[in-house]
From TrEMBL:
Pfam families, per the entry: Tetraspanin
SUPFAM superfamilies to which the protein is assigned, alphabetical: Tetraspanin
Record keyword Ligase present: no
Stated family: Belongs to the tetraspanin (TM4SF) family.
Primary role: Regulates the proliferation and migration of oligodendrocytes, a process essential for normal myelination and repair.
Organism: Anolis carolinensis (Green anole)
Listed GO CC annotations: plasma membrane
Quaternary state and interactors: Interacts with claudin-11/CLDN11 and integrins.
Cellular compartment(s): Membrane
Stretches that traverse the bilayer: 12-36, 48-71, 83-107
Gene name of the record: TSPAN3
Family annotation (CDD domains): TM4SF8_like_LEL
Membrane topology label: Multi-pass membrane protein
Protein name (Swiss-Prot/TrEMBL): Tetraspanin-3
Amino acid sequence: MGQCGITSSKTVLVFLNLIFWAAAGILCYVGAYVFITYDDYDHFFEDVYTLIPAVVIIAVGTLLFIIGLIGCCATIRESRCGLATFVIILLLVFITEVVVVVLGYIYRAKVEFEVDHSIKKVYDTYNGTNPDAASRAIDYVQRQLHCCGIHNYSDWETTNWFKEAKNHSVPLSCCKATISNCTGSLSRPLDLYAEGCEALVVKKLQEIMMYVIWAALAFAAIQVKVKIKNSVSTFRGLSSHSLLLNLEVSFLSLPEILLVRIGTCSQILRYVIQYVIRKYL
């Protein structure tokens, strides 16, 4: 009976470590997605620190992979030292995830200022040639987000490119995808995207940052439910078998409360971040 309990506990913990590996892959994917997407919009913000949450979440994903490796080895060997290392790193990852959430909220709030500060300069440097990075960035954004100009297509009339072209037209990237014979002429405004790009760029970048926040928040909630703190205390006088059972009980009860934990953490962190932004930013 005892051996059966040990085997069951080992199976649960090995499965938990496999989940950590899956989590590592998801977090690294989210971080990489943020990097790739922000690269398409990097001309619209100057603060490179905006990408810090993405860097940290990739680091967290790497740590989770290491945790899974240590956890599997410690579980199979019933190593008390290995399980202790497993829990300590898990605690560090949890703290890092909280930091990611806080930084994510802070930099998400700064996105609007960054874009508003930079977008006019980007449009002023547009020259319509593909080798020019700023021109490629504007054409890409206008096609992808279905927008034209900063606030609307009339903003192009104040740009150097428009004045030099002297054809009373906007770039072809302003043309609606459904219009096959669009020339970009302002005399045919219905052929052009009516919405400006600034608000859409801000919305897009804030959505991307929310992916980082929710990914970190979700896995932080999972780790809270695994009861890291309680697991640490079990090292005082508990055998490896008892520790395995303790972690097993915590893990098996995870699904019933995960969504509640995520919602509660989100509300608390929202109030904290709002206070920090009002106080220091």
